[in-house]
Amino acid sequence: MPSLDAYDSAMPDLSTAAQQGHVYDTCRPEILPFVPDGIGSLLDVGCGTGGFGRLVRERFGPGLHLEGIEPVAAARESAEAAGFDVVRGGYFPEALERGDRFDCVVFNDVLEHMLDPWAALARTRAHLSRGGWVVASLPNILYLPVIARVIARRRWDYTDEGTLDRTHLRFFTRSTMLEMFAGAGFEVARAEGINNQWYTGRWDRLQPIAPLTGQFQYLQFVIVARPAAAR
């Protein structure tokens, strides 16, 4: 397994993605309900232009200490005006100081961009306050439209966005997400699928059977976890 020391230099060039807007301008309101109540501080890793941070600020109010990490300068400037107390440049966890602790660390579709997300998650524990949480959204490689397209075309074609985004370095199923968190020393409290809309539009006739497709219907899964020793 590659060392985390190498992942910073192996990160893809995200400036093009930032210009395209599909990564950095999303607010991700579907993630907000997964953020636990009662937290006093939150770190948004890969906060982009700060859309999710604005929602977090609206929910928790000015008493929440809100920080972000964002490697792209143009996006970081927008995030700084979105209600964050601090927006750090660079990558997680190198951008943090040894003593930085948060009640909640959020990875909104970020871990799959890392060369070694397993090690990054393990190191997250050092930046959680006692009883702290991790909330992570991860693409589901078993999303039915993606699998069907690969089978039909006999090709794995990368795209500019979505599950097969060309900047994705790692791919997960629900089971391997859970294994990654367990291996990093976390206990998973919730693992729920989101964005199950493949049966809309020209596929709307298939909506009645959507519940039968299980995890194949979800574009992403959200994992809510805390260090196993915290229980």
H/E topology pattern? HHEHEHEEHEHHEE
Q: How much helicity do the residues have?
A: 10-25%
Overall geometric form: globular
Give the terminus-to-terminus CA distance.
29 Å
Strand content: 15-25%
Mean pLDDT equals 86
The low-pLDDT segments are 1-23
How many strands, what sense, and barrel or not for the largest sheet? 7 strands, mixed
Query: Strand order within the widest sheet?
Result: 3-2-1-4-5-7-6
By DSSP, the count of extended strands is 7
If you compute it from the alpha carbons, what radius of gyration comes out, rounded to the nearest whole angstrom?
Answer: 17 Å
Structural class: alpha/beta
Number of helices: 7
Would you write up a description of this structure?
Strands 3-2-1-4-5-7-6 form a 7-stranded mixed beta sheet, with helices on both faces. 24% of the residues lie in helices and 21% in strands. It has 7 helices and 7 strands. Strand 1, helix 3 and strand 2 (65-69) form a beta-alpha-beta unit. The longest helix has 10 residues, at 51-60. It has helices at residues 7-10, 15-20, 51-60, 73-80, 117-124, 144-153, 174-183, and strands at 41-45, 65-69, 86-88, 102-108, 128-139, 186-194, 220-227. With 231 residues, it is α/β, with parallel strands linked by helices.
Please outline what is shown here.
With 231 residues, the chain is of the alpha/beta class. It contains seven helices and seven strands; from the N terminus they run ααβαβαββαβααββ.
